[in-house]
Design brief:
Elements (H helix, E strand, L loop, with lengths): L5 E8 L2 E8 L6 E6 L10 H4 L5 E5 L20 H14 L4 E6 L1 H13 L3 E7 L6 H6 L3 H10 L1 H7 L4 E2 L2 H8 L10 H11 E4 L2 E4 L3 H9 L5 H4 L7 E8 L5 H16 L15 E8 L2 H4 L1 H17 L2
Parallel strand pairs: 3-4, 3-5, 5-6, 6-10, 10-11
Antiparallel strand pairs: 1-2, 2-4, 7-9, 8-9
Helix pairs in contact: 2-3, 5-6, 5-9, 6-9, 7-8
């Protein structure tokens, strides 16, 4: 039986501090940097990341977890600010190539980083990145469109109405247990989500990610992950879920083509993707939140990515 090694550290970045959870032996080189989904936090993925047996850094993105960076709800129109925060973290604190992983909006943020980090990425794993059509991306440039999205897009509307102040941890746990998006969650994953996502409040505790910030992120889609995907590394593996899908067959094929064509056009490029071929796997049986419902599977995918790039850099 092994003892989990978990350590939280704070890092100075432009505008404030970014909080990170380290899993594994921190004296060893970092192998994986992981970015969470909208409304979640770094510690929420403990059951996925701790069993890997390697040094992992999971970041709390702006407006989430214990990270202390300003948020401006009305002006957020794309996810570039999250990309820039992680770029600043890499510039200051990561001095060798690593695998970059992410879930949902964290997965998209990772793709947006590809043209910037380039050879500093030895691999990439995306758990169900959000893929939206060009018309929606164009509309998100405008405040009026984003306002309409917040009112009428169910996931955004629901986020904005979320209860975020509780008397204590136990009330929050009972509120979420087997309800809404948390239905089917591994129990420990839910507890980890609350451990990393609750902050003290005068009336008890509150969600670290304010509901209006979570809502604003859902509406802010004026970024182009498909263009950035051309720069993803050779060792890239994207898992797209089918239940409550955040992608379509056409968009999955589009990003597959972008990765293939982008890498194949580079000097000495090859078509080697993840183990088993291809870059994008569609899993119709999985839900968007599968890393919390199928934690062992999520761990296996990340472990395979780290192992593959080590054997075949």
């Amino acid at each position: 039986m092994t003892t989990e090694l978990i350590e939280r550290r704070e890092y100075d970045v432009p505008g404030g501090t970014m909080s990170a959870v380290h899993f594994g032996y921190t004296r060893n080189p970092v192998k994986l940097v992981f970015l969470h989904a909208n409304g979640f936090n770094a510690y929420a993925y403990r059951t996925v990341l701790a069993p890997l047996g390697i040094h992992v850094i999971a970041l709390d993105l702006r407006g989430h977890g214990m990270t202390a960076l300003q948020t401006h709800v009305d002006s957020l129109k794309n996810w570039h600010i999250f990309r820039d925060d992680v770029e600043a973290f890499f510039d200051r604190y990561i001095d060798h190539p690593v695998v970059l992983g992410g879930h949902s909006y964290g997965a998209v943020t990772g793709i947006l980083l590809a043209p910037i980090l380039k050879d500093r990425l030895s691999g990439y794993v995306g758990f169900d990145p959000v893929m939206v059509p060009s018309l929606f991306r164009f509309g998100s440039r405008f405040k009026a469109f984003r306002t309409i999205t917040k009112k009428h897009l169910p996931i955004a509307r629901g986020a904005g109405r979320r209860k975020f102040i509780f008397t204590d941890y136990d009330e929050a746990y009972q509120r979420y247990k087997d309800r809404g998006a948390f239905k089917g969650f591994d129990d420990q994953a839910l507890r980890d989500y609350l451990t990393g996502g609750l902050k003290p409040h005068a009336d008890g505790v509150q969600l670290a990610c304010h509901p209006l910030w979570e809502q604003a992120i859902f509406a802010a889609q004026a970024h182009n992950m498909f263009k950035a995907a051309k720069f993803l590394p050779k060792h890239t593996h994207i898992i797209s879920a089918g239940r409550g899908a955040v992608s379509t067959k056409r968009l999955r094929q589009k990003i597959q083509n972008q990765i293939r064509d982008g890498y194949g056009a580079r000097p000495n490029g090859s078509q080697a993707g993840h183990v088993g071929g291809g870059y994008v796997d569609f899993k119709p049986e999985l839900t968007h939140l599968f890393p919390f419902q199928n934690t062992e599977f999520a761990s296996q995918v990340l472990r395979a990515a780290c192992f593959q790039q080590a054997l075949n850099p």
